[in-house]
Amino acid sequence: MKQISILGCGWLGIPLAKSLLEKGFSVNGSTTSLEKISAIESNGIQPFQIELSETEIKGEIDTFLKNSEILIIDIPPKLRSVLSENFVKKIQNLIPFIEKVKIKKVIFISSTSVYSDASSTALRVTESTKPNPETESGKQLLATEILLQSNENFKTTVVRFGGLIGDDRHPIHFLAGRKNIENPEAPINLIHQKDCIGIIEAIIKQECWNETFNAVASFHPTRTAYYTQKAIELGLLLPEFVNSKIAVGKIVLSDKVKKVLDYHFQERP
């Protein structure tokens, strides 16, 4: 039985772990919250309370990683709050532990925010497009990708997810009824939780390492068209958009996922 460690058992990590368990893997899962330990354990996942900071790692990180063939890093940069930290430094502190226990395969969950938005919605982004992040989160994710993939002691595959949606998570619930929403003509770049899990499992099954994948559903209507229709479908107040500025955006293509992994997206956003 292969063992996998998932650093960050949250909205994606727990259902991913459950799916891996069903496929015969043993899974260690981490959370920063003591309150979430029981929820992780109740799903058959071996729970660990692990917290990374710029200066240290709290928790039984050695035990969490020991005997695992693969580490999945699924922790987001916390850069929007007063307590924001240097995400790159956190991962730098983690790397010696990965090397110590001799994990050879890493999957790093990144984001399409490593690509810049263009002054035209016609820009089509592939993995060969040079990243040029505009946000601090995107900048630190890109720096972390480079940090991990440049390490010769293990192989790292990066997955750049678009906006995450699922049965219990959708941006329309935040946008419904709001007014003066900017950038109405920008295309959407979303991916369903089921496809996030499917793509990660395809990478593991096919031993596809030292790669970078964009992971976004092939459905890119404008924000105004998409979110208006979603509000109607769910019986929510319509969002109101405003054309006060030139639209900026990008269409992120996932052709490499389809070609290299022979992956077929399961869910349309």
Notes on the structure:
The structure is a single chain. This protein is an alpha/beta fold and 269 residues long. It is built from 9 helices and 13 strands. The protein has helices at 13-22, 37-42, 61-65, 87-100, 136-149, 172-175, 193-205, 223-234, 255-260, and strands at 3-7, 26-31, 46-49, 51-52, 57-58, 70-73, 105-111, 124-125, 155-161, 163-165, 190-192, 212-215, 251-252. Strand 4 (51-52) and strand 5 form a beta hairpin. Helix 4 (87-100) runs parallel beside helix 5 (136-149). The mean pLDDT is 93.
Structure at a glance:
This protein is an alpha/beta fold. The chain is built from nine helices and 13 strands.
Please give a handful of descriptors for the protein shown:
single chain, 269 residues, alpha/beta, 31% helix
Biggest β-sheet: strands ordered side by side in the sheet = 3-2-1-6-7-9-12
The total strand number stands at: 13
Strand content: 15-25%
Q: What gyration radius follows from the Cα positions, in whole Å?
A: 19 Å
Flag low-confidence runs: none
Helicity, in percent? 25-40%
| Helix and strand run | EHEHEEEHEHEEHEEHEHEHEH
What is the structural class? alpha/beta
Distance between the termini: 34 Å
The main β sheet shows up as:
7 strands, parallel
Counted by DSSP, the helix tally is 9
Whole-number average pLDDT? 93
Shape label: globular
Summarize the SSE layout with pairings.
Blueprint: E1 3-7, H1 13-22, E2 26-31, H2 37-42, E3 46-49, E4 51-52, E5 57-58, H3 61-65, E6 70-73, H4 87-100, E7 105-111, E8 124-125, H5 136-149, E9 155-161, E10 163-165, H6 172-175, E11 190-192, H7 193-205, E12 212-215, H8 223-234, E13 251-252, H9 255-260
Parallel strand pairs: 1-2, 1-6, 2-3, 6-7, 7-9, 8-13, 9-12, 10-11
Antiparallel strand pairs: 4-5
Helix pairs in contact: 4-5
